[in-house]
Amino acid sequence: MLAGGSLPAAKNGLVNNSPAPHEQRARIQSPPRVRVRPDRYSLSARAKAPSFPGIRKTTVFDTVAVLGATGAVGRIMLQLLEERELPVQNWRFLASARSAGKQLTFMGREFHIEELTTGSFAGVDLVLASTPDDVAREFLPAAVAAGATVIDESGYWRMNPEVALVIPEVNPEAALSARGMIASPNCSTTQMVMALKPLHDAARVRRVVVSTYQATSGAGLQGTEDLKAGSRAWLDGKDYRCEAFAHPIAFNAIPQIGSFRDEGYTSEELKMVYETRKILGDESILISPTCVRIPVANCHSECITVETERPVCPAEARELFAAFPGITVQDDAEAGLYPLPSLCDGRDEVFIGRIRRDLSHPNGLNFWCVSDNLRKGAATNAVQIAELLARHRAGQSAG
Length: 399
Ligand SMILES: NC(=O)c1ccc[n+]([C@@H]2O[C@H](COP(=O)([O-])OP(=O)(O)OC[C@H]3O[C@@H](n4cnc5c(N)ncnc54)[C@H](OP(=O)(O)O)[C@@H]3O)[C@@H](O)[C@H]2O)c1
Prior knowledge:
Mean pLDDT: 89
Number of strands: 15
Shape: globular
Distance between the termini: 40 Å
Order of helices and strands: EHEHEEEEHEEHEHEHHEEHEHEEH
Number of helices: 10
Strand order of the largest sheet: 1-4-5-3-2-6-7-9-8
Structural class: alpha/beta
Strand content: 15-25%
Low-confidence stretches: 11-50, 52-56
Largest sheet: 9 strands, mixed
Bound molecules: NADP nicotinamide-adenine-dinucleotide phosphate
């Protein structure tokens, strides 16, 4: 097992059974260190639409705590929660002692950021958590013990057998039968599994070879700062010491994300192997990953080669991808149309292009896949899980 200690029993048993405009973004009122994304790419009209037309008037969650509200993922989470209008009565915002007492604006109201302690979760129904692994390890069991459902972005709990690992478009049932803790997958895993799922359902995926080209925002606010400050220093001929990366990221490519583990693979690469198998419920899928950090601000790109049990031609693959919720196909070689990180930034979908047969294998398919790691790779997925639980609970109380 890669990570994960033991969880206290969820107070509410099967947690989900207890009834329980992007532009108007949440602002943290100490100057943010970076602005991650250019606004002009932000938000399709679809993303602005409230996603709870049916149950908007019903409060499903009394109190929701956003833990890690000041971080790269947490800030996007706040934008999404404003846009999508989860039915919630009370909100609380938690972070470290560094942020405690600062104010943020959310849905037009001012809130104080609270310091996380083990006593923070009394009376909280749902925790949306995006902190470093060690914080998740130390504090989230207290949230479950206090009766909250936790949706965790960190890597710590994902492979724990008691924890559901969920992409709502792929394995929603796992969220609905979860006990206390639900993990959101690693960002590079999520977009790949979104792409694999329709192929797996149609033709059973046997083997995957994937190379990632990962954005600096994947390493949090400090990653983006290292890209910006490091690029400025490089252009000025000065030294800059990265804090989030082992080597300078400006004008560079670093074939190491996470720490080195078994057989020369990194922790990020092994996450792609084990998390994919857990989400798809298929331990037989063979995966050979290489994860690379590149000097792109936001959106991870992946070059994926898939071998299926029977051949899937590019035309069929295009149809399968296009029919899958959350995937947008951008694939017109003549028009020069394929997914670009700069254009996928701020979008909730997984984008796929360059779909072509693998010249080296009759059952092989190659494609290019790009997604906003802070959105579908993190915050969007977590909020979608919360929406899934809300719909389920609203359905139960209506029934
Ligand atoms: N970035 C991505 O693309 C991405 C994608 C998927 C998953 N994730 C995972 O999501 C988590 C957060 O990532 P991030 O990119 O948002 O990192 P980040 O920008 O560094 O933000 C970290 C957040 O955790 C809070 N925090 C740190 N130590 C804390 C403590 N002792 N007590 C309470 N809060 C604490 C920080 O609060 P302060 O501001 O007060 O320090 C901040 O809100 C990580 O586990 C990461 O692996 C990230």
